[in-house]
Write a structure and sequence with these properties.
Blueprint (H helix, E strand, L loop, with lengths): L16 H13 L5 H17 L13
Length: 64
């Protein structure tokens, strides 16, 4: 199910080549549309683990 479009902010992140290669392998399989989509999904999952379902994105807070 597609998520509603929200205002997004551009951030810069440094990743090791090893992590980038792993992300690229998943993108090539078609599991994710691109690197950004993988990173957003990974962040959402980590927020769910750390904050539960009431994480900042589910409350609409995108200004962090």
């Amino acid at each position: 199910m597609a998520r509603p479009k929200q205002m997004t902010k551009l951030i810069h992140v440094r990743l090791s080549q090893e992590l980038l290669d792993a992300i690229d392998r998943l993108v090539k399989t078609g599991k994710y549309a691109n690197r950004s989509e993988f990173i957003r999904a990974a962040i959402r999952e980590q927020l769910k683990r750390d904050l539960g379902e009431a994480g900042s994105e589910s409350r609409g807070n995108t200004n962090s």
